[in-house]
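Structure tokens please, single chain.
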Amino acid sequence: MTDSADLSPEDRKLVTLARSARARNGVPEGAAVRDETGRTYVAGTVALESLRLSALRTAVAMAVASGATSLEAAAVVTEAAGAAPEDLTAVGDLGGPATAVLLAGPDGAVRAAVTAG
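Here you go.
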């Protein structure tokens, strides 16, 4: 478990943005990623009949579509015990295996900090 007080202001912002996306859209997960320039991309779960994406993969896709070439960090807010391997792979594809991924519960409490690789 990670103490949220130990997070940098930028990482706390990612968790807050991810939590807000989840609550605002009424979806199972919210996620936020920060690119190499400090820009953030926020997304919720996509659950269409023809398209299903986790919040984290959607946030990574938004970053790529906006021209990001790397990621500094990511956060996902979910009730699940952890991030899916596919989500970590997507973060790693853009940010590399050492990219930090914060896993938080719906209350915003960070339960774990892992790397994409």
